[in-house]
Amino acid sequence: DQQVKQNSPSLSVQEGRISILNCDYTNSMFDYFLWYKKYPAEGPTFLISISSIKDKNEDGRFTVFLNKSAKHLSLHIVPSQPGDSAVYFCAAYQAGTYKYIFGTGTRLKVLA
Amino acid sequence: SAVISQKPSRDICQRGTSLTIQCQVDSQVTMMFWYRQQPGQSLTLIATANQGSEATYESGFVIDKFPISRPNLTFSTLTVSNMSPEDSSIYLCSVGDLGQISSGANVLTFGAGSRLTVL
To answer: What is the largest CA-CA distance in chain B?
Structure first.
């Protein structure tokens, strides 16, 4: 039972354009959603998060949107840069469980 | 945030053998976790390493296969026992702060991972 899904395994975007990474979830009890970025041979690093009581959180070039009715969130990167090329994982967390549920990741390639 | 040193970074192992992965953190942390990422799959939680007591395993993972030690607040080991090719994965140590995790404000910090290939 995959509670967090990233249906696009890969995405290519031109430098300077917008990258949109999508994530769907099934458990309406999740309290927080997070995005992690992973470079080859490195561990995932935290990028941005959003509480389930909000619908948008912005941090510089990165914005996460949450649509609770659709159980869907997305990460927008504007403008995209070649250094953004990495695998992006969506994760969900339910307070009190101390467990993060991760998606399968989307490989983003930003073309110069 | 904490800095995690994980070793080995990669290894090639023979079927039936066991390998121990070490996770060293540069500061004391309350929560330590072990994850597995199989090829093309998501990061899956194996267990929570508890200091001074047995680890708490997730469904599908058992202590005999993945024994875990956590002798103090900065160190943990994960052993992959009696390995088979299906155990070929990246194993990741991660840490978090209990208070922050409870509030949802935290995020997990990950080590670079140990890539195991079982022949």
So the answer is: 43
Q: Which domains does chain B have, with CATH numbers?
A: 4-114 (2.60.40.10)
Q: How confident is the model at residue A67 (pLDDT cuts 50, 70, 90)?
A: very high
For residue B8, cis peptide bond before it (omega within 30 degrees of 0):
yes
Any CB–CB contact under 8 A between A53 and chain B? Answer: no
- Binary contact (B109, A46; C-beta < 8 A): yes
Domain span at residue A58 reads 4-111
For chain B, say whether A1 makes contact (Cβ under 8 Å). no
Task: Please give the pLDDT value at position B1.
Answer: 75
Looking up residue A41, the CATH number of its domain turns out to be 2.60.40.10
Phi and psi at residue B85, in whole multiples of 5°?
-55, -30
Residues A104 and A7 sit within 8 Å (Cβ to Cβ):
no
